[in-house]
Amino acid sequence: MTKFKKMSRQNQKLLHWLIDCYAFHLASVDITNKRASEKIKLKGKPYWNFKAKEDLKKIFLRAKGEGFKDYKLSDRLKKRVYDGVSFVEGKHIPVDNKAQLLFEDLEEFIVTEFQNISMILEGTFSLALNLMSNDNAIAFTEFLYEFFIDNSIPMWLEIEELFRNGNWRKYVYMHFKHNQCLICKQYATEVHHVYKVARAGGRKHDKYYYERMPLCSKHHSEVESIGEHTFNKKYHLQGGIELTEEEYNQIKSKYPGHFKEAEKNYKKEKGEINE
Q: Per the confidence metrics, is the pTM higher than 0.90?
């Protein structure tokens, strides 16, 4: 049990930036390689911002819809109270402190369920600081970021930098997932081995979990030409990532031929083919 954590100011700012970008997109104004700090004018901005906010909420709710099947508030409340009581019973603290823990937990539950009910009955939800948990805000921003990438919607450079610096691993995987070059955002047709397979005895010893990054042919040629250290320094990269088994299975078909030896070794490890 933890105290309800409201959406942070940073997350709120990020959400409003994303809504802002979508408003420009709806108004057919290109903001590629632009910064929010440039304060670009948008004719009819109040209308476009309102439309963008409501449209993005609906898109998110449609994607989340399955999560509301068989929703029963009474069952959820009963479970929350039972779990809360079970938790505080084992604590050797004064009764007042136990009551406070239960109150804080129920406070979080009420705010969360208020949002859920609003989503179900009204098809919308509030972005107010005191009504949205930080976890929900993060889920919404991450969904929007991926939605923007999926649909080639330009974002302020500050958004890109926040995601990039906040979780490098997730940032790189998102590019893998959407066939985007880590440098120029163009279609990534190639996978660069950060971990050189020569160290493992050659390409035939390649493994799916060796460190990699998605690149277009131009930037793949460049890193091979100038070397890893210079390339990373030039483009401010933190390196590639080691794919998990689940991630590997999700993206391998997107890069035909690039995981050929890794796939053979993967199947050998699984016992699907003989040595």
A: no
Distance CA 77, CA 100 (A): 17
DSSP state of 36: G
Distance, in Å, from the CA atom of 2 to the CA atom of 194, rounded to the nearest integer, reads 40
The closest of 207, 210, 211 to 270, measured between CA atoms, is: 207
How many C-beta atoms lie closer than 10 Å to residue 31's C-beta? Answer: 20
pLDDT tens string 99-154: 888 887 777 777 767 666 665 555 566 666 555 777 778 888 889 998 998 888 99
- DSSP for 141-182 reads HHHHHHHHHHTT----HHHHHHHHHH-HHHHHHHHHHTTB-T
pLDDT tens column, 74-86: 777 788 788 888 8
Residue 68 · residue 118 · CB < 8 Å = no
CA–CA gap between residue 207 and residue 56 (Å, rounded): 39
